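In the current project phase, the collection of sequences with tokenised folds has grown. One resulting record follows, to show the layout:
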Amino acid sequence: MVPLTTRLAPLLLLLPLLLPATSAGVSSFVPGVPAGLRLRGGSEQPQQVEKHVQTPIQAVPANPCKIFIGNLPRFANATSLTPFLAPYGQVTLDVKMHPKYADSCKGFALATYDTPEEATAALAALSGSFFLGRSLLVKADIGLDPEKIAEKRARREVAIAKAAERATSSAEGGDAGPVPRRRPTMGARDFWPKPSEPGTRVYVGNIRFGTTWQQVRDHLAAAGRVEFGRIIKRELVGEDGMKRWVSRGFAIAQYASAAEANYAVETLSGAPINGRPVYVKPDTPKKFRPKEEGGGDGGGEGGQGGEGGGEGGHAAEGGA
């Protein structure tokens, strides 16, 4: 009996003539190895993967006709934002959309007016104003500074490296140490922009329930440009199980400068908002307050919260 390999030998010799020329990656026919396997294997020499090289960032000077609008909600778009900006002049709007989520705003937009005067008027009128449930962060355009961007990228790389070290230490059973709290980004409920200098924030107390942040902002704007702020709220669960955010009776506002904040403390404390006199004082984080002041402030806020029991149904706007 003739072995099977001997009977198939003539066919193996004819296969190279019958098969079409293969693409790069098959240099010659190897008997006993299916061609498909060699085709999937690709080239005999591994291809080198090119490393991504970041293109250098070119410096861009500040545009006096352009303003930055931040802390926008995800559902904000040009249709809703254009009427908000149009009263101050002809505007060209560029709403930055999220690349991964369809019809989702990244939280900021750039508005370009025809003249610097229009941009200045919009900045003064809209800074810290209330829009779609959010307090807006409106600033003048500052252009692009390659050095600042490089510093930000370097800090981000350091943070990523530290996070990787903590993950490795935790996987090995070691003490990874405390995880640093990530700074809330624009759009988060507890987002606050970095102040330009210390002493720019003020505490506004004794606010009547039902007062909106826009009313508080317009009152404080008499002392200077309110950069950001909100009425502070607490979460309550009703008898129906629904969560509601109810005003605690005070607000925190951030001015563009410490001089404006001091002027607000001197001139606006005792003036009425929505029929009730409010007091304005410098905002001091609780951990830095003296003990004798900490109890007083806590009692004051607690009293305002207690008053909310009678007027708890009147939730103030601007809590986001």
